[in-house]
Design a protein that fits this description.
By secondary structure, this protein is of the alpha/beta class. Helices cover 34% and strands 22% of the residues. The protein is built from seven helices and ten strands. A hairpin with a 5-residue loop joins strand 3 and strand 4 (50-51). The chain is elongated and about 60 Å long. The chain starts with a strand and ends with a helix. Mean pLDDT is 85; it is low at 1-13.
């Protein structure tokens, strides 16, 4: 199981967070970076409206602050840099808490527990061949992950599948397409 955190992160030390919060209240807008496309947590409808659990939480939070919510669709690999450069005031996204990330951002309490799942083409051969994680540790196996996402970090840190070829993609949809093709 992997813990994910709802991020209301300020890129300044905690003693200055109050002034950041006051700045948000005075400006009347909370700018939140998130990457659309990760249902059920954050997604944009075809008409461009944000939906999902993270979005609902941020709407409730901005209501308590009495400010407007501005969601900014931000590529995953640029989400923390966007916060640090003050493009946004906070990040609302499922993000694994790592020691590297903790050096630059503050995490809230966890709100969601997720598990890594491996998707393979549904064939009788694959059902018989892939029963445990170690069955994927072969030079004949190619694994698709989203760059910088928890499975990518896990594979980098654990070296558990060090024989398999790892393909990295910028979007979740691209990882699924790679598996299907």
């Amino acid at each position: 199981n992997m813990l994910f955190f709802f991020l209301v992160i300020f890129s300044v030390p905690s003693f200055a967070a109050v002034s950041t919060l006051e700045k948000i209240k005075n400006g009347g807008v909370l700018k939140v970076c998130s990457e659309a496309g990760y249902l059920p947590l954050e997604m944009k409808t075809p008409s461009g409206n944000w939906v999902g659990f993270d979005v609902d939480m941020m709407r409730a939070y901005t209501k308590t602050l009495q400010v407007k919510l501005e969601m900014l669709d931000t590529k995953w690999d640029g989400i923390i840099p966007s916060l640090i450069s003050k493009k946004c005031d906070a990040i609302a996204s499922s993000m694994a808490k790592t020691s590297t990330r903790e050096k630059v951002v503050a995490f809230s309490d966890s709100y969601f527990r997720n598990q890594f799942l491996i998707a393979v083409k549904h064939t009788e051969k694959n059902i018989e061949k892939y029963k445990t994680i170690s069955d994927f540790n072969s030079k004949d196996v190619t694994i698709a992950v989203k760059t910088g996402a928890s499975p990518d970090l896990y594979l980098q840190d654990s070296k558990i599948l060090n024989k398999a070829k790892i393909l990295k993609f910028d979007a979740d949809a691209d990882t699924i397409s790679a598996v299907l093709s």
